[in-house]
Amino acid sequence: MNTTVATTACEAFAEIRAEVYEGRQVMTKTSLAHLRAHAISRSLFRPGTLKAAIHRLAFVQADPIRSPARAQDLILRHRVNGYRAGDLERRYPDLDIEEDFLYAYGFLPRKVWRLLHPRQQTGLPALAKKVHDIVGKFGEMHPKDLEAHLGRQRVINAWGGYSKATTRALEDLHYRGLLRITRRENGIRIYATAPPIGELVYSPERLSKLIMVVANILAPIPEKSLYATISRFRRLGNPRAAVDQLLQMGELQKAAADGVTYLWPTSRVDRDAVPRTVRLLAPFDPLVWDRRRFEHFWGWPYRFEAYTPPAQRIRGYYAMPLLWGDLIIGWGNVRVVGGKLDVALGFVNNRPRDPAFRSELEAEIENMRAFLGMGE
User: Fold this and answer.
1) Residue spans per domain, the chain
2) Taking Cα atoms as reference points, which of 124, 174, 132 lies closest to residue 149?
3) CB of 55 within 8 A of CB of 280?
4) What is the pLDDT of residues 176-203, one digit of tens each?
5) Cβ 178 vs Cβ 194: under 8 Å
6) pTM of the model
7) What's the rounded Cα separation, in Å, for the pair 278 and 287?
8) Are 239 and 208 in contact (CB under 8 A)?
């Protein structure tokens, strides 16, 4: 596999030209190499503080599986100086962020959270009203503490199993924006009444802003993927019409590569070089989140297999895409066994023989040890 990397994102993206005629943007052509460089430069920016990284990302997807750490921690470790597993949970109350559902569940700045609400203001069930009153009266509420007030009634959940009715009510109130997560205790959400949303944003404006948030996180994103992702905002208006308007206004631009149309926010292109480094990425990292783009960019299909029966897994329980320069050349399964870090790698083609790859891989494994607090 070719391991050549682009020199700079600015140079790599210089061939893209978007012109406007009579208020309509004309799509041009580009190459996968240019798009890859743009994606990497935008997403894997220079590490900074935790708060700055979250606000720049605008969304960090969460997942409870620890293999070897939760997805949110694995995503942030590449973008925050000195990040350690669990820092997000430890520092959450001081970061001006919320937990909520954007296109997946995760952490997002409060200014983005406000765009999501109100989701629904009517049809609040009687139990949810009781739960809201109790949380408002007593302040922070652990789900188990709520059971002391309302009992342990069970209801059938969306997967056909059983959930506690009080927990379902808490989740419903949280989704509506009436409760928020204040912190976690051993991974368990602690709830409190949500702050006022403030001045309501007109729905079409909310829709346009949310589209820009998603487009920025996943840029450059295939047109089909963008439409699929923003379809959940239909209650705010017509997503396709909103995208067309953003293109006409010059807020979004697009180009085609190998017959696939990509869109991204119109902005200054970062001039950082795409580094020849090795990175093990979380399965939900924004750089690899869209599987359609992944396969087009890197020429092989990646699937998250944690919920696949073991006998049917191809790459492993929690295989993490392996980025080398501007190419994803394989994957790694990382575990802590007997107090030691075990890293099992797989490659789409042959393992690179470049000495630089070997030294960068060793550095990435050492970074993983530090991130997990091993040897401290």
Assistant:
1) 126-184
2) 132
3) no
4) 999 999 999 888 999 999 988 776 677 8
5) yes
6) 0.88
7) 14
8) no
